[in-house]
Amino acid sequence: MAKGxxxxxxxxxxxxxxxxxxxxxxxxxxKKNLTIELAKVERVDTLxxxxxxxxxxxxxxxxGTLTLKNIPEVVTSTVELLGxxxxxxx
Length: 90
Fold this sequence. Notes:
Blueprint: E1 5-6, E2 10-11, H1 16-26, E3 34-37, E4 43-44, H2 46-61, E5 66-69, H3 73-82
Parallel strand pairs: 1-3, 2-4, 3-5
C-alpha cells in the first residue's frame, strides 16, 4: 500500500480523535495527497464520514487528492444513504 492511513474495524466518533491526528500529521507541510485504507472497517458513523469529506476538501485545497482504498459495503451503503457519493467517486 502507498504510504497512508489504515482505518481499523470501528470508524466512529469514539476513534476519530486519533484518526484526525494521523490525517493532520500526514497532510502537514507540503503534502497534498493522502491514501486511506478502509478494508478493515466494520462500523462507520456520520462523524467519520464528515472527517473524510473534510479531509477530501483539504486535499483539494492543496491541489491534491484523497484516495480511499478497499471500501467495504458498510461504508459504501452509508455513503449512498447520506448522498455523499463524492467520496467514492460513483
